[in-house]
Amino acid sequence: MTRAPLKSFNAWLACGWLLLIAIAVGSLMPMPHAAIDIPQGDKVQHLLGYGALGFWFAQLYPGTRDRWLCLALLCAFGVSIEIAQGTLTAYRAADFNDVLANTGGLILGIGLAHLWNPLRQIDALRQKS
């Protein structure tokens, strides 16, 4: 994969890994109640969380092939989390609709990164100072 020309690439990548870990931990912990109190609110959480993942990693790997690979790998991550919820926990269940929400979020996030790349802007400001 071809990295974005960011001076702080490793720091931004570490933030991406922390986001992945936070989603994995949050997805496997017991869920006290829906944080978004609307019908199917958990799907909104999936859409937003995976949208953030797609947006973040698409900025780090801006090439078209790289973004397709990010989409595939992050989709596999989402499917793996759903399988883990269904097999490793007694308090969570695998849900195909969650996989759809995850994938939708990834597509939206990667699409947004195609239009807007704030990491490059932040990196450029840091280099000027």
Would you give an account of this structure?
- The chain is an all-alpha fold and 129 residues long.
- It has a domain at 40-128.
- It has helices at 9-28, 41-60, 64-88, 96-115, 118-128.
- Helix 1 packs antiparallel against helix 2 (41-60), helix 2 runs antiparallel to helix 3 (64-88) and helix 2 (41-60) packs across helix 4 (96-115).
- The longest helix has 25 residues, at 64-88.
- The protein starts with 8 loop residues before the first helix and ends with a helix.
Structural class: mainly alpha
Per DSSP E runs of 2 or more residues, the count of β-strands stands at: 0
Major pleated sheet: none
Give the helix level as a range of percent.
over 70%
Rg value: 16 Å
Number of helices: 5
Low-confidence stretches: none
Helix and strand element order: HHHHH
**Beta fraction of the residues?**
under 5%
Q: In one word, what is the shape?
A: elongated
Mean pLDDT score, rounded? 92
Gap between N and C termini, in Å? 29 Å
Quickly list its features:
129 residues; elongated
Write the layout of secondary structure elements.
Elements: H1 9-28, H2 41-60, H3 64-88, H4 96-115, H5 118-128
Short summary:
It is built from five helices and no strands. The protein is mostly helical and 129 residues long.
